[in-house]
Amino acid sequence: MQMSQQNNNPKKKTKYFFDYTMLFIVVFLLLFGLVMLYSTSSYEANIKFDDPAFYFRKQAIASAIGIGVMLFLMLIDYHFVQRFAFLAYVVSLILIILVLTPLGYEAGGARRWLNLGMSLQPAEVAKLALIVFFASVVCKFKDAIKGKKGFLFVLGLAIPHAICVLTITQNLSSAIIIFCIVLMMLFVATPQYKEYFIMGAAAIALAVIIVLLVKYDVIPTSISYRFARIKAWMDPESYAANKGFQTLQALYAIGSGDFFGKGLGESIQKLGYLPEAQNDMIFSIICEELGLFGAFAIILLFMLLIWRFLVIANNAQDMFGALLVVGVMAHISIQVILNIAVVTNTIPNTGITLPFISYGGSSIVFLLAEMGLVLSVSRSIRLEG
Description:
The chain has helices at residues 2-7, 20-49, 54-75, 85-97, 122-140, 148-156, 159-168, 172-189, 194-215, 225-234, 245-256, 282-315, 319-343, 361-379, and strands spanning 104-107, 110-115, 119-120. It is mostly helical. The chain has a three-stranded antiparallel sheet.
């Protein structure tokens, strides 16, 4: 009788969920990334800057800033960012265009960064901005996007960012990721799937046609370095002196790691053989030092992270929260798949980093900001009983 009275007590506090599993995975990936970054980059950093910890220190500072941003966003109501959705859309587009001004600068042969007192990559800002913007837009026009005109109109809002990232910063991989994030968010918000199958089939058909045209020299590789990369992807040994060099060195690293690896810090390929190993190709050094066992362990962690995204999205209190989570899940999952596919030569080299692990201050800060929003959504989930 007393238990019944307690359960019917109107003053009983509502309990809320918090995803500690997700927080643990993110922190572990972050710390693991710092360890692997130091192991991978210390040789090159010592030669270039006379400081083995140069890359590690910069990444650690960016990680600390990112953790602060994540904690702030985690503790506030995620609906707060909805007020700035359109502003974020506009500002992120302006930042990409600013790369063309004296504020933009080149690094590693690509002009993709802004010097605003600190280094900033606008493409990373755009990913977060578009997740917030499209979550807001889909919620406002949820009935309209069920029709073809409304669907195409909302999807078209992603085109300015994707085109600017592609043409201004010459960053094809980020342009693909931006478009796929929006596509995934629309996919979960609309009941019809025919359009997605058509677009997917068209994209695969176009890719196959381009590969065949490049393979049989119908399209000369002199037109674009991207076509040269396709040639190198199909036959890296024939381009071992240039376009295929990085891919071959990455494959050597993966092959020499065997199952359990050579041991942490024992990589040979990082000693000047594999260019920019701390960036796009860090997964190959993980394979070399920790073996396939270490590589599978990291893949498993990313799979667990995606599972937690699904749990939070399915239990979010509203569509805006669910779409935020889906957008972040799409971003991280697509980027992980593309990075590992490039490193293993499954697809042509596109220059994409491995989330939480590869070197990149802007990437870490904005990834952690996205995780802060996801954890904020998880905090809003009410527990029954």
